[in-house]
Every structure is written in C-alpha cells, then in structure tokens.
Amino acid sequence: MRIEGVPASAGYAEGPLFDLGRPASIYASKESAAEEKMSLEAAIGKAVNRLVAMIETADSDAAGILEFHLAMLEDDALSGPAFASIASGEPADAAWRQALDAEIAGYDASDQDYFRARATDLRDIRDQVLRALTEDGGSTAPAGAILHGEDIAPTRFLETDWSHGGGIALKAGSTASHVAMLARSRGVPMVVGLREPLTAVAGIALLDAEHGNIVLAPSPVEIGSFRQASSAFTARQGDARTFLARPAATKYGTAVRVQVNIADPSDVDGIDIATCDGVGLMRTEFLFGKTLPDEETQYRAYRKVLEWAGEKPVTIRTVDAGGDKPVPGFTVEEGNPFLGLRGIRLSLARLDIFRVQIRALLRAAPHGNLKVMFPMIATSEEYERAAALFAEERAALAARSIAQEMPPLGIMVEVPSVAIAPEAFAGVAFLSIGSNDLTQYVMAAARDNAAVAHLNSVRHPAVLRLIGSVSAFGRETGIPVSLCGDAGGDPASISSLLEAGLRDLSVAPAQLAMAKAAIADVPV
C-alpha cells in the first residue's frame, strides 16, 4: 500500500514503523499526596535536565526552540494547578495531564494564531513530563525506525538517535516547521501531509522522502525498486561533494554565486569558507533569547563571522522578531503575527532596542565585508527611516572617536508590495529575496499548514513571475539581487530560479554541495 505525501527533507528510509501517538506506560500511583508531589517534582526536574542537556549540544536553531520550552516548563503558573490537584487526592500523572490539557484547550480555542501555535509546545511539555513519570522505555523508537503520527515535537526529534538511519512520516506537519528545518540540516528523511493515516503493519515500511510517499507491507519488487532509488540518491549526494571546492557554474558556464545562511556565530565553525561565496543571510533573532543582548554581545558575534569570512561578504539581517519567532520583552501578542508588528516594523517601534543593534553593526563593520539588510520592508519610507538611524548612530560613534564604518544597506524582498513595485527602492544597495515569506504571502498559504502545503510552492508561476521581475529590475539598475530562502537550496527549484534570472543564491550549509551540483545541470 502506497500513501502519498509532501517531501519535507529529501532522503530514503527503510525500517519498522513506530507510532508517535502510542500510549505511555501505566504510572504506578504512590501511597500519599506528599509522595505524588515528590514524584511530579522529580519528573519535571528530569524533563528540565533533558532540555538543558540538549541545549548544550544543539545548534542555534534547535537551541532557540528548546530554550522556549524550558522557560515554559520552569513557569510555576503551569505546574501550580497540577500540584493543587495532587493535594486534593489526584495521582501525579492524572493531575499533570488534566492541568496541561486544560491549558492546551484554552490555547487551542484562542482566536489568535500565536496562542494556537503555542498549544503544540504545551503538548510537547506535557508528554515530556509524562514520559519522565513512567520512565517509559517503550516510548523510545528502535534504531532505524520510521516515526509516524499526526505531528512530531522538536524535542522528540532532537532526543532521537538518527545515526542508524530512520525517518519521519506525518499526517499533518509542514515543510516549513521547526522539525522540517532540523531534519533538512541533519539529513533525516521526512514526509508530511500524508493523504491517509498510517496503520501499524508487521515488517518494514519504505519512506521515499525525495518524491513524497511511504509504502506499507512492500512487495519484493517494491523493495528492489526502492533500494535502487535510494542507492542512486546516495550516489548523487556523493557526487555532489565533488562540487564543494569548485566555484558554482551552470552547464554552459554561467557563474552563480552560492552563499550560506547561518543563525548563530558558532555555525561557521563547521564551514570551510573556501566552499562558499560568503554569508548571504546571518539571522540575528537567535541572539535574542531569554534576555535582550547588549551591544558588546552583538558586536562580538558579528565580528566573529566577519573575521571568519575575510574579504567575502557577510550579509547580516537586522532582528526579524515576530511571526513564528517571539522574543520575550520585545515582540507583542497579536491575532495574526505574520501580518503584524514584525521585522523592521517592530524595530522601528522599539528604537531603544534597534539602536543597540545598529551600533553593534557599525562597530563590527571595519572587521570585514559587512552588508546589512532590513526584513519585512513594505514601503520605501521604512527603509529611509532605518537608513537615517544608521547615519545618526554613526555620527554619534564618530563624535566619541569609536571605530565604525557604514556598511551597504539593503532590504529583504518578501512583501509582495516590494516585488510588484521595486522601482520605489532604486536607492538601496542590494535586494535579497526571502522566498519563504514571499511565497506564503503571494499564495495566501501559511508556511506551517500541511492542509495548504501544495499551494506553498516557489515554483508557482505567480511567485516566479515576481522573482523574475525583481531580477530584471536589478539588472536594469545595477542593484545586486540574491535569494536567501529555503528554495535556494532545493535542487528541484534551482533551475526555475536561475531561469527567472537569479545568479546569487544563499542556502543552508548542509545543502551547499547539492545546490552546486544542481546548478551545474541547469542549461543557462
């Protein structure tokens, strides 16, 4: 039986199915309320310790997710109702489940997208503590298993040992979810939006996350065809590595710049600068964790990456908080955060925070080839206000004889108003297309909604037409144009992007080899 879905992280997995929704082991009740309270406290402590341990070894993307879970788990307001129920005679597992389920129901019923999205985090926290309460060894997937269910929590992904293979097959999920991004960065095959729920079957299942399907109870012929496709995919990956050290070029020799996207200064420690053309996007919101970073912290982070890159450009994006990236003490709760006070809008509303980042960037600029871009720009006035702030802060630093330099200032092209009328931005130094947000706004299809995943494609003619018009505007005006969204590292999309006129892509480091190999096959 073959079930179709949507590829979220390319690859192949062959192994037994493991149900993510399987019930936990039965909790052994204690003899007194005091012991139940101690049992829940110990389970919460174990869950906290697991999160702390994962944060210590996680990359910046994963650490940001885990730190948010940790903050919620350590919030007494979350555990208080459970302890109250224990005092009334409830066992620890029932008390915790009831307290969290009530909280989850409230979030699910909210008319605000932000709160509904947080319900997933609460379910994850609930299940982490329940597993700690039961010491449920049965909740650990066997090596090489294909994890299946409605969805998967980031912590479940991170605590799974993927060194022996395995994959993920989900009824819901999204190609733009946190787990999908983690899966791509680690090479874990993943399919989302399965058309039918999976049923437990004996023997192995075959997950084809290159084309987007899973085969249950496969026949010998299906197994043979699958293994042949898997071997071919592995061979292509091996061949792609030979492109790493070469400059990227198309089949007919057209040069293409390929840069990398990073989220934290430590990301560059595992990248050989010789394999890429610089940093096309350095996200800065992951510096904004539990506390807002001061100027010195930001300066050191930016300087590290600039010195690593040497003469090659490093494009740092000012903080893009909001949307699916809440920052305590900075972002605001909104009914539709993707269309609200996020990106440059939020920075211009909180000048006390924005000016700190501006000063850190100006001070870091002399240490390398810095470019700065503003996210979520919709009007030329927003760009002009942000640029004026850079000029003000530079003058203030110069007056204090502090070393600084004005970097080229550009914008993200992710709001359709900019892509439709780019002539309003003839004064910017460069344009960088954010394909993730541009696609979701053009197609009115949320990045994290599996039900509309088939609409969220950068290869839709409407999206490609806008990308082509921005590329043409860049050629006509001499303004450099690049693309730094997920599409740049997707081999299936690269041909369309180059045919639309792009010659500068920025990709996740793990996608660098495959992107260069895909470029070499494009006849332009």
Automatic annotation (TrEMBL):
Subcellular location, in the record's words? Answer: Cytoplasm
Pfam families to which the protein is assigned, alphabetical: PEP-utilisers_N, PEP-utilizers, PEP-utilizers_C
For this UniProt entry, the molecular function terms from Gene Ontology, in alphabetical order, are: phosphoenolpyruvate-protein phosphotransferase activity
Q: Which cofactor names does the annotation list?
A: Mg(2+)
Q: Which Gene3D superfamilies match?
A: Phosphoenolpyruvate-binding domains, Phosphohistidine domain, PtsI, HPr-binding domain
Q: Which family does it belong to?
A: Belongs to the PEP-utilizing enzyme family.
Query: By what name is this protein known?
Result: Phosphoenolpyruvate-protein phosphotransferase
Annotated source species? Mesorhizobium salmacidum
